[in-house]
Amino acid sequence: MGDDSEWMKLPTDQKCEHKVWKARLSGYTEALQQFQRITDEKSPEWGKYQGLVKKFVTDSNAVAQLKGLEAALAYIGSAHVASRTVGEVVSGVVCKVFNQPKARAKELGSDICLMYVEIEKAEAVQEELLKGLDNKNPKIALACVEVLRRAVSEFGSKIISLKPVVKVLPKLFESREKAIRDEAKMLAVEVYRWIRDALRPPLQNINSVLLKELEEEWAKLPSSAPRQTRFLRSQQDLRVKFEQQQQNEGEGGEDSEEAAPAVDAYELLEAVEILSKLPKDFYEKIEAKKWQERKEALEALEALTKNLKLESGEYGDVVKALNKVIGKDTNVMLVTIAAKCVAGLATGLRKKFGTYAGHLVPTILEKFKEKKAQVVQALQEAIDAVFLSTTLQNVSEDVLAVMDNKNPSVKQQASLFLSRSFRHCTPTTLPKSLLKPFCVALLKLVNDSAPEVRDAAFEALGTAMKVVGERAVNPFLADLDKLKVDKIKECSGKVELAGGKKPAGQVKAPSKPEPPAEAPAKTSGPPKKTPAPAVAKPEVCEEKAAVVLPASCMQMLDSANWKERLAAMEEFHKAVEQMDSKEMPCQALVRMLAKKPGWKETNFQVMQLKLQVVSAVAQRGSFSRTSALAVLEAVLEKVGDVKCGVRAKEALTGIAEACSLPWTAEQVVSLAFAQKNPKNQAEALSWLSNAIKEFGFAGINVKAFINNVKAALAATNPAVRTAAISLLAAMYLYMGAPLRMFFEDEKAALLSQIDAEFEKMKGQTPPAPIRGCSKASGGEEADAQEEEAEGGEDVVDLLPRTDISDKITSEMVSKIGDKNWKMRKEGLDEVAAALSEAKFIKPSIGELPVVLKARLADSNKILVQQTLSILQQMATGMGPAIKQHVKGLGFPILTVLADSKNTVRAAALATLNAWVEQTGMKEWLDGEELSEELKKENPFLRQELLGWLAVKLPTLRSVPSDLLLCLPHLYSCLEDRNADVRKKAQDALPMFMMHLGCDKMNKAAAKLKVRLDYLTWRKPTQTRGEHANSTQRRPQSPGRGIKPRPSSPPCRLFKG
């Protein structure tokens, strides 16, 4: 009794550590009572037991352990610091509780694990349970499987990650213990309840008898979607909703259950590394002269590509070899196997295969000339798989290039490929800028002589209509006869979009009234195609004009007395001003102005009135381009006149408002330079400069403008040259620096004048358009205006581009890859010269990406810098189309940031920024590539990349979800040995939080094995010694770091 009285006087926390089991039992009992009394989850009392909870569950005495488990469960459910104990407590439960014979102990152990899940520690619990599956004691493994099944059943697939669970199922099915195998079957059934058929591929290799048993169990499951029945602390709103639903169901209400989240089977699979498993002589055999050896190599690769998920790696050489077989091998059987290999690689790598899409798509499209059904089917499967790894934008150039191929099979299969690709698109991924060139190319094919080509084109157009809606496609069908339009709508009605996507609009019945004889001109660029009204005969014009004009006016228009002509024109102008715009015969009225003496009128007052009438008719009536063409040349002849010039410019502005500036400007420039009067040319260019600022630059034909401006710059008259330079200054406001590249060949004196004008415009923003939208009041014309706005978003896209793929010869490529650095430099010099000569280029650049990527890792730093300069030049020359090379050439630029030389890193950053200027940031934040680079433990790379992100992220309105993948590496950088890396990580941290939010940042931090001390974030000025003292004052379990608690989210770091 003396011993008993000794420990009975001890405080509760000391009793819990006592060597006498009765003392511990008493301590656990008192602790349980104390835990039940504490109402404040942040009470300091909880901290006393933080290091003792593991002992609660691992007590060597079975009786005391049972009470300790009850106390531990109460502690975990109420204490705010409980989440810090998850690893050691769950590990103790697995090793010391699940092997106990008492069912009550196992039950409490399971409840403890599930309580940790409830307090947001699902991943840590799952990790310990999965470790327990490898325990030699079958009781422990069985209990772990049971707890996993309960966790999935109660919390669902959103909370419990199913990928690691699915991974261990095949191993559990092979267990010697029947109880474990049976429990594993129940777990598989529970997992299937949540993800359905996504579970089949990972289990395809298990015993067939077992698989049949599982199939039978799966068939018994209800078809209704499962629901989460237990909720996290942060999901209390869902809990209330669930309880209300249960109450409604109990009262006979409708079951308003939510569908379980769709799970991709691919995400549950383990990636397989196949590159090292290729035969050592693979590349020799695939180049062999004997087809049997080539077949042997391809079959070996095909067997490897049957793995459903492949590990990422450098597949460039493999793809190059397959591309050669598909493109050049005469044995169709080998082409078929190579196509299957491509499909397998693309399916297994998914988005990681997008780098190689640009090399394969043109080759596969050209190979569709083969007529054997087996080959065509294999090629179709290959190109469809490749498409899913990239975007329609990236393959658009290659597809459009073969749409006018002489071989009908190629045209047919290209159209069918587009049709299948459109099914995976949405109105966002199929914008009007991309839709237009495809529609134009397909509309040519609907008139093809081959019926199979026509049918394929109809199907593709119908699919596009289903995706973006009839309203978006109709403008392109204006010149198509009704039967063909109906056929397209019929095809659209039969289309089913991939993934159950909803179409943008319903296809209406093909009933559309015929357009009026003279439809109003559209105000958009490019303008919508409408049947142009026929040029009316003079007699017809006179009859129509006589109906709306006074008789005296008609009689005196051709009078020999200028005063009578003046009076007639005054009546004419007054009548037009008072005329109903709907009844105004515009063409007839403007043609009456040409009645003798017409536009050769010598009296300036009469001529001014004629120009005013043109302006009034254009502004008030339904003024067509036919009407405009009837007067444009005459108006331009007066634009340089001292007395009539102002009225002539007003008339041109009126015509531009009615017929759109892009069309009017093109006519004005061509007509002005067809004349020999320099005064008219100078004033026409001057009007155009002002018109661009008033109407905006959308839809302008840049190529035609530049050719005419060059002619004006070469004029002998200084006024014409000055007006041309002013026009260039106006264009510079909208086009920026790329405009100058077209005039680098001009004389130095002239170029300095141009540069001086450009310098004045730097820093200025283009004025908002004040004209050009008056006619677009609704309906189709409003759509046209919207198209014009969309078309003008990226003016650089309008620039004429040169295809340099024929200049990228095999000799040049071999030089760039030569062992001699002088030869490599010579090859790079040739590439730079080709880019300089072409200025603006198309995205097709042959094998250049592969060899330039290799040069970024060149041992000669001068060549690395030269390669970076070429890539910078390429970005400027290619414009936004460089997006398709981001994966293959853009991300390798990031690897150069790991260089130890400041000059090389600076060149890499300049190149990177040049690319981002053209592509935008989204392409760089999508996917795993950026996080993989940040993962590399190179201090130079990390500090440069984090510094770059700290600058770029604040400029973005939104970011892709893949940015989350960078968070673990960002946190790692906060504890990096290098001070510069830590500093850059601290600078980048708030920018990540700005986009991702506190919750996501907190969840990512909770996954870390070692706690990040937030004091280093909140107080960066704190000294190392102070920091050490502050960490020593915190209680810490032996051998483990304390993890951050959920109640202290990272957003607290920046308060104050």
From TrEMBL:
Keywords from the UniProt entry: Cytoplasm, Cytoskeleton, Repeat
Gene Ontology CC: cytoskeleton
GO terms, biological process: establishment or maintenance of microtubule cytoskeleton polarity; microtubule polymerization; spindle organization
Organism: Pygocentrus nattereri
Pfam family, one: XMAP215_CLASP_TOG
Cited SMART domains: TOG
Domain TOG span(s) in chain numbering: 1-227, 267-504, 535-767, 797-1021
Residue ranges, annotated region (Disordered): 498-537, 762-793, 1021-1056
HEAT repeats: 438-476, 966-1003
Family label: Belongs to the TOG/XMAP215 family.
GO molecular function: microtubule plus end polymerase; microtubule plus-end binding
Source organism, top-level taxon: Eukaryota
Residue spans of biased composition, Acidic residues class: 780-793
Compartments it resides in: Cytoplasm, Cytoskeleton
Biased composition (Polar residues): 1021-1035
Gene: CKAP5
InterPro entries, per database record: ARM-like (IPR011989), ARM-type_fold (IPR016024), CLASP_N_dom (IPR024395), HEAT_type_2 (IPR021133), TOG (IPR034085), XMAP215 (IPR045110), XMAP215_CLASP_TOG (IPR048491)
Entry protein name: TOG domain-containing protein
